[in-house]
Structure to design on (692 residues):
C-alpha cells in the first residue's frame, strides 16, 4: 500500500484498497500520527474466524488462557480455573503459530504478544482429523526475558494448580524452561448406582448401590525445556523435551449392595487408577524458499512407563472371607514415534498443501496379577494427503484427498489386520462481505482401535462381569457435513448452523452372555448417525464493560449395533457473562455437558458452574472464585443394554472456593517462540484396568 497522506479522503481510499487485497494475514492497526484505526473484533475469512484481542482484554489478562477466556469466542467453553478448553463438548486442538501445543504452553504466553487468535471449525487435512483448531499468532515481544508464576489453591480442599515458566534469549537463540503441578488429593466423592441384569432365560436381578463414601486422587506434574534458533523469514529450528508425570490417579468407592432376589446385603469396595511417566522429544525444522514455498519436517517421540490397577471386593457383613476378590495389575512399557514432512506453496489467490507422515506404536503390557503374562501390539500408520485452496471473488473452495494405511500385528497370536482408508474433504464458502458468510464443509477421518479395545487378556470386573478385547477390529471411518452462517452486526456476532455426522462402522462396546459370564467386548458396529442444530452468539451489552457469549446445541442420535438400535435426543451448551472495568473482571460461567450415545451407553462429562473475580495491578493479578457455587456436580452414564440396564452418577464435593495469585516479570529484548506450522503427533498408548 502506498504511503497515506494526512488527508481524510486519502485515508479512506487506503482502507478501501486494503479491504480488496488478499486476506493472508490479520488486518493490523494502522497508526498515522495521532490517528489509530483498529481492525474489527472478528474477521470472517473463508477458512477461519479471526479474533483480535482488544486493549481491555489484554490489560485484564496475565496469561494466554486468561486472554482466550476474555475474548469470549462463542463456541468455546474455556475455564482458566480448571485449565480446560472445549467446543461443543469436544476436544480442541491448540496451536501456537501453527505448532500443535498444550494448554500449559498457552498459559505460558504473554498476553501482550498475542496478535490474533484463529478459530478454525472446519480443519483441513493437514490437521489430522481434529474436531476444532485454535491457533494463537504470536509477535516478537520487546524484552529479552520473562518469568511467569501462578498459584491457585483451594480454601477447603487439597486441590490447586501451580506453575512457573521462564524464557531467555541470546542472539537468534531462545531457551525456555517451565513446569506445573496440578493437585487433587482425597477429594470426597459419592456414587449413585443402580443396575438390572437380565439373563438369557429371561430372569432378572436388580442391584441398588447405596453410597458409603469414597475419595478421588488426581495429581500430575509437567516439566518442559526447549531450544529454538530462528533466522526470520528463512529458517526455524526447534528442539523440545517434556516430561509428564501422573503422580496419582485413583478412584475409591465404597457402597452397600441391595439385591432384588432377597439375598443378604453386600459391602463392596471398588477402586481403580494408574500412575506413570511419559517423557517426550520433538525436533522441528522449517525452511522457506523463493516464490512463497515452504518445506517442513517434524519428528516426535514419546515413551510411557507406568502401571494401572483395578481392585473389586464384595463381602457379607461380619464375614472374614470375601464373596468376590478381584485384583488386576498391568505394567506398560509403550513407545510411539512419528515423522511428517509437508510442502506448502502459496499464490495470490490459491494455496497448495501436500504432505506425508508415518507413525509407529510399540506396546508391551505385562499382567502381573495373572502370572506375568505379556501382551504385545504393533501398530503402523502411513498418511498421505494433498489439498488445494482457491478464491474466486466472493467465493472460495478447498478440496483435498488423504489416504491412510493402518497395520496391526499382535505378536502372541500372530494375528493382524491392515486397511486402506480414503479421507476426502471439501469446503465451499460464500462471503457476502466481511461480516457475513456461509460455509458448507464436508470432512472425514479414521479412528484406529485402541490398546484396551484389542487386548484379548480377560479382565474380571465384578462377580460375573468380564471384559475381553477383539483383535479383529478394523479402522473405523467417520464423515461430517456442516452448514454454517457467520454474522457480525452491531454489538452482536456469532454463528448458527446444522451438522450431520455418521460413522458407519464405529468401534463400540458389545455386551453378551457366555455361560454364566456377562462379557463386554468390542465390535465394528452398524453405525452411529446424529443431527445437530447449534447457535453461538456473542453480545456486547455495554461495549468494553459488559459482554455475554454462549453456545447451545440440540442433537438427535441413532446408534445401531449387533442386535440393538437406540435413539437419544439431548441439548447441551455453555454460557458466560463478563463485566470488566477499573482493573476488575467479574465473570460467571455455566456448562452443561454434551450427552453422547456410543454403543449402548449414554455418557456425559461435567455439568459445572463457576464464579470468579480478579483484579490486575501492574504485573500482579489477584483473584478469588468458587467452583460449583450452585447446584450439584454430576458426571455419569446410562446403559441401555437389554442385558444390563444401569444408571450411574458420580458426585464430587466440588463446591470449592479458591484464591489465585500470578506475577509476570519481563526484561530486556526477547524473541517470540519459534513458529511451527505443523506438528506430528506421537502419543504412547496405555492400558486400562477393568472396573465397574
Amino acid at each position: 500500500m502506498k504511503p497515506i497522506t494526512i488527508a481524510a479522503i486519502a485515508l479512506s481510499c487506503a482502507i478501501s484498497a486494503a479491504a480488496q487485497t488478499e486476506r493472508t494475514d490479520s488486518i493490523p492497526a494502522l497508526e498515522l500520527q495521532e490517528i489509530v484505526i483498529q481492525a474489527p473484533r472478528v474477521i470472517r475469512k473463508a477458512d477461519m474466524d479471526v479474533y483480535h484481542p482488544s486493549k481491555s482484554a489484554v490489560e485484564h489478562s496475565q496469561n494466554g488462557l486468561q486472554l482466550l477466556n476474555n475474548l469470549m469466542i462463542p463456541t468455546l467453553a474455556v475455564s482458566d480455573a480448571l485449565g480446560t478448553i472445549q467446543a461443543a463438548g469436544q476436544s480442541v486442538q491448540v496451536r501456537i503459530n501453527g505448532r500443535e501445543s498444550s494448554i500449559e504452553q498457552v498459559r505460558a504466553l504473554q498476553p501482550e504478544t498475542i496478535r490474533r487468535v484463529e478459530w478454525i471449525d472446519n480443519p483441513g487435512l493437514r490437521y489430522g482429523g481434529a474436531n476444532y483448531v485454535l491457533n494463537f499468532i504470536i509477535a516478537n515481544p520487546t524484552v529479552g526475558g520473562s518469568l511467569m508464576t501462578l498459584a491457585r489453591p483451594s480454601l477447603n480442599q487439597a486441590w490447586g494448580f501451580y506453575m512457573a515458566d521462564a524464557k531467555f534469549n541470546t542472539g537468534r537463540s531462545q531457551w525456555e524452561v517451565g513446569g506445573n503441578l496440578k493437585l487433587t488429593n482425597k477429594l470426597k466423592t459419592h456414587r449413585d448406582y443402580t443396575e438390572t441384569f437380565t439373563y438369557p432365560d429371561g430372569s432378572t436381578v436388580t442391584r441398588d448401590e447405596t453410597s458409603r463414601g469414597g475419595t478421588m486422587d488426581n495429581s500430575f506434574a509437567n516439566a518442559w525445556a526447549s531450544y529454538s534458533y530462528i533466522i526470520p523469514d528463512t529458517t526455524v529450528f526447534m528442539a523440545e523435551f517434556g516430561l509428564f508425570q501422573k503422580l496419582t490417579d485413583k478412584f475409591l468407592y465404597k457402597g452397600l449392595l441391595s439385591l432384588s432376589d432377597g439375598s443378604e446385603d453386600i459391602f463392596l469396595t471398588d477402586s481403580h487408577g494408574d500412575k506413570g511417566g511419559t517423557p517426550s522429544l520433538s525436533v522441528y525444522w522449517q525452511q522457506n524458499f523463493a516464490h512463497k514455498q515452504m518445506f517442513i519436517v517434524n519428528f516426535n517421540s514419546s515413551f510411557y512407563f507406568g502401571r494401572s490397577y483395578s481392585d473389586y471386593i464384595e463381602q457379607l457383613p461380619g464375614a472374614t472371607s470375601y464373596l468376590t476378590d478381584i485384583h488386576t495389575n498391568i505394567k506398560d512399557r509403550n513407545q510411539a514415534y512419528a515423522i511428517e514432512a509437508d510442502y506448502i506453496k502459496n499464490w495470490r489467490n490459491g494455496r497448495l498443501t501436500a504432505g506425508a507422515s508415518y507413525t509407529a506404536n510399540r506396546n508391551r503390557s505385562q499382567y502381573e496379577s495373572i502370572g506375568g503374562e505379556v501382551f504385545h501390539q504393533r501398530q503402523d500408520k502411513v498418511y498421505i494427503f494433498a489439498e488445494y485452496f482457491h478464491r474466486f471473488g466472493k467465493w472460495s473452495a478447498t478440496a483435498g484427498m488423504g489416504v491412510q494405511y493402518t497395520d496391526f500385528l499382535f505378536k502372541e497370536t500372530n494375528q493382524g489386520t491392515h486397511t486402506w482408508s480414503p479421507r476426502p474433504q471439501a469446503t465451499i464458502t460464500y462471503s457476502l462481505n466481511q461480516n457475513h458468510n456461509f460455509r458448507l464443509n464436508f470432512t472425514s477421518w479414521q479412528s484406529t482401535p485402541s490398546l484396551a479395545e484389542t487386548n484379548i487378556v480377560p479382565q474380571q470386573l465384578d462377580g460375573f462381569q468380564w471384559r475381553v478385547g477383539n483383535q479383529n477390529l478394523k479402522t473405523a471411518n467417520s464423515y461430517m457435513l456442516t452448514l454454517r452462517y457467520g454474522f457480525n452486526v452491531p454489538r452482536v456476532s456469532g454463528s448458527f448452523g446444522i451438522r450431520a455426522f455418521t460413522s458407519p462402522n464405529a468401534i463400540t462396546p458389545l455386551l453378551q452372555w457366555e455361560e454364566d459370564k456377562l462379557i463386554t467386548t468390542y465390535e465394528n458396529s452398524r453405525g452411529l448417525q446424529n443431527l445437530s442444530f447449534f447457535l453461538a452468539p456473542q453480545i456486547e451489552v455495554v461495549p468494553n464493560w459488559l459482554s455475554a457469549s454462549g453456545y447451545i446445541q440440540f442433537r438427535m442420535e441413532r446408534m445401531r449395533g449387533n442386535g440393538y438400535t437406540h435413539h437419544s435426543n439431548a441439548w447441551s451448551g455453555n454460557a458466560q457473562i463478563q463485566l470488566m472495568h477499573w482493573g476488575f473482571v467479574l465473570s460467571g460461567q455455566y456448562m452443561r455437558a454434551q450427552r453422547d450415545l456410543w454403543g449402548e451407553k449414554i455418557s456425559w462429562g461435567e455439568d459445572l458452574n463457576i464464579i470468579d473475580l480478579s483484579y490486575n495491578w501492574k504485573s500482579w493479578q489477584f483473584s478469588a472464585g468458587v467452583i460449583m457455587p450452585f447446584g450439584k456436580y454430576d458426571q455419569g452414564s446410562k446403559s441401555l443394554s437389554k442385558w444390563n440396564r444401569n444408571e450411574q452418577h458420580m458426585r464430587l464435593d466440588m463446591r470449592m472456593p479458591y484464591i489465585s495469585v500470578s506475577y509476570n516479570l519481563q526484561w530486556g529484548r526477547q524473541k517470540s517462540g519459534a513458529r511451527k506450522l505443523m506438528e506430528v503427533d506421537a502419543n504412547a498408548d496405555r492400558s486400562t484396568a477393568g472396573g465397574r
Notes: Residues 1-39, 670-675 have pLDDT under 50 and may be disordered. The helical segments are 8-20, 55-59, 64-71, 103-107, 451-454. Residues 8-20 form the longest helix (13 residues). The radius of gyration is 27 Å.
